[in-house]
Design a protein that fits this description.
Chains A, B: This is Gamma-glutamyl phosphate reductase. Two copies of one chain form a homodimer. With about 425 residues, the first copy, chain A, is an alpha/beta fold. The first copy, chain A, has 13 helices and 16 strands.
Chain lengths: ~425, ~425
């Protein structure tokens, strides 16, 4: 294991190289950054056999180390997955340039012409786990937005990541952009992550991609700003005015379409005045979902498993759902405020006044009316991709894509103005 | 002195009250928040004698403690200053509402209508020093943007701050808004600042207002996001094509209009091809500025004081200026990148191509062409006020006013959409 000083030295050196590369990227033409990613997509396709061989070595090592089925599945690549990685990079190449956009402009009474213009953030650190596709996805988004990126993937995927990283660098080189714009931390030493989290001034933003323990560690240790979400404890509130069939469809989709994603519903809130709460609970159960609730509830108490108090604060990421009956929209909002994680919450209601009451008051990154929480996704929101979903309150909230990987600067053009 | 636990308990209690108040403010009508500030301005005017008496007690205590002239001046209020504080609060009341604005909106192919809407950040902590006007200025901006605020002013101004805080609370009460929207930390214990900086989850954003040692402590210790600038090591680069008279006027204003503000020029970069560097140095010297430079420079070496290497990294905040001769715009940019603080940098040039080259490549929060760096101010930028100037790269850069005190949420209005 590297000692902390060696890790700091490594990250400082990578950070300095990244800063220099970032300055070049920041003034590179749109077409050059797009070309680098198109070329990188081609390079990934061309390197398919190399990438699969590297991945096979990772998988073999992981199996020997006794990795579980789900983790192995996240690690494993095949022809289709490599093609998907290349297609993802090509899709980012095709997105509109986020740089140079004028946010607003004005001419002051003294004639000074001011504008706020989108520029890159600078150097972004990505800390991730076993999915090798993040190497390409995250690098592509960072480069498209003019940023240099330092990637630190999971040790179990190191060979796969190296092979994909080499293809990304080939793309940069083919387009005449500096290779240091996309760097992969060469060591699998955990101390390197600590050095990245402490690299205030070298790295401008850290984005963790992975499970809750990774995100929690990053949030707890980082001295660098972090864009992330820890939990997705998402609610669907079914109001008394809800159309029963719409409520059933949304609840089923929000919970059961995919249970392991951060946008999945974890708690169902049913208004006491809703006509048929049993129907909703049974629909979930028939779909294979365990439903936990208060056994003393007259309507649903007999058909649910007893919930304990921790259930309301639990992100199951599984075919399990907690359900509570609430007295009206304000009680639903109070439950969400107390137990939610500020990710994605939804109301199902025909009453527009109640829906707008909920939309205005629910303080989550994403608030939906008559739609499934599983729409919480950059692609579904029309962003073309996403680097992650943020539940912090500054800079960017909800799905973060290219715009969230930029900042702005003020440019003032004068004719000799002095303040006097 | 309170022990850390007592401070944490105090801040946790204040934070919980602030969170509740923030929820009310977030949905309060524009007119109500504006009225609260208009009423607070009136209350400050009505309490003038009380405020001045409280301030006299602070000043007497500070004098007895041996406070210096500049610090006493920052602390001392008089009729005109109290009137100015009230006028500042009234001016914020008159600013347009930053909440509810739609940043962008789209309807997805599935019919889901998405929008990003400006909402408050939540609970903001202000840590400041001896200027009592910050109590009113910062509170007014936070409330206008729908946030609750926890104020922690300097111990030397505690009586003045209490009197001004009481008037702010009167304004809130008169408009029917919760008093807890503006809270003043009741203790002058330094441990309370530490508790605020550690209050992740209770306080959403910390803004330090004061000298460099305060800002440095906040940036070093905070577990809560911080909006601030540490230094304003600002440059004016005079290109060979610059009009000599315009360059003289801008250099003089940038350095000497006010030497103690963060937008003041600290280093003058003169192109070796500029016709008359001596004229610029002598203009500064005639205005009373000490000029430090390289004594071996053929043109200006004999008239400057010798600079040492630390001069290029020094924010003098005084009538002192470092000057360097550089070989062209890229050398100027390299000097700024190496020694600047990312605050405000300017070029004086008649050559538009060179100017745009500089504007595109200078990576500071504010970059100016043919204008004085002393325009770095929210009021001068048309923002109506400012809570401070930020040199971080996330969320907000340069002068921060109402928009920087908001965030956004995504609202989606559907008709039963499921992801399927």
């Amino acid at each position: 294991m590297l000692d902390p000083d060696a890790s700091s030295t490594l990250i400082a050196r990578m950070g300095a190289l990244a800063r220099t590369a970032a300055a070049t990227l920041a003034i590179s033409p749109d077409a050059q950054r797009a070309a680098a990613l198109s070329q990188a997509a081609e390079a990934i396709r061309a390197a398919r056999d190399t990438i699969l061989a590297a991945n096979a070595a990772d998988v073999a090592r992981a199996q020997a180390a006794g990795l579980s089925g789900a983790m192995l599945d996240r690690l494993r690549l095949d022809d289709a997955r490599v093609a998907g990685i290349a297609a993802g990079v090509a899709a980012v190449a095709a997105l509109p340039d986020p740089l140079g956009r004028v946010i607003d402009a004005s001419t002051r009474p003294n004639g000074l012409a001011l504008s706020r213009v989108r520029v890159p953030i600078g150097v972004i650190g990505i800390v991730y786990e076993s999915r090798p596709n993040v190497t390409a996805d995250a690098a592509a988004l960072c480069v498209r937005a003019g940023n240099a990126v330092i990637l630190r993937g999971g040790s179990e995927a190191i060979e796969s990541n190296r092979a994909i990283h080499a293809a990304m660098v080939d793309g940069l080189a083919a387009a005449g952009l500096p290779a240091d714009a996309v760097q992969l931390v060469p060591t699998t030493d955990r101390a390197a992550v600590g050095a990245m989290l402490a690299a205030d001034g070298l790295i401008d933003l850290i984005i963790p991609r992975g499970g809750k323990s990774l995100v929690a560690r990053v949030q707890a240790e980082a001295r660098v700003p972090v864009l992330a979400h820890l939990d997705g404890i998402n609610h669907v509130y079914v109001h008394a005015s809800a159309d029963a069939e719409m409520a059933r469809a949304i609840v089923l989709d929000a919970k059961m379409r995919r249970t392991g994603i951060c946008g999945a519903m974890e708690t169902l809130l049913i208004d006491r005045d809703f006509a048929d709460p049993v129907m909703l609970v049974e629909a979930l159960q028939h779909a294979g979902c365990e439903v936990r609730g208060d056994p003393v509830e007259a309507s649903i108490g007999e058909i649910v498993k007893p919930a304990d108090p921790t259930d309301w604060d639990t992100e199951y990421l599984d075919a399990i759902c907690s359900v509570a009956l609430v007295d009206g929209v304000d009680a639903a909002l109070a439950h969400v405020a107390r137990h939610g994680s500020g990710h994605t919450d939804a109301i199902v209601a025909a009453d527009e006044g109640v829906a707008e009451h909920f939309l205005a008051r629910c303080d989550s990154a994403i608030v939906l009316w008559n739609a499934s929480t599983q729409f919480a996704d950059g692609g579904e929101f029309g962003l073309g991709a996403e680097i992650g979903i943020a539940t912090g309150r500054l800079h960017a909230r909800g799905p973060v894509a290219l715009e969230g990987l930029t900042t702005y600067k003020w440019i003032g053009r004068g004719t000799g103005q002095v303040r006097g």
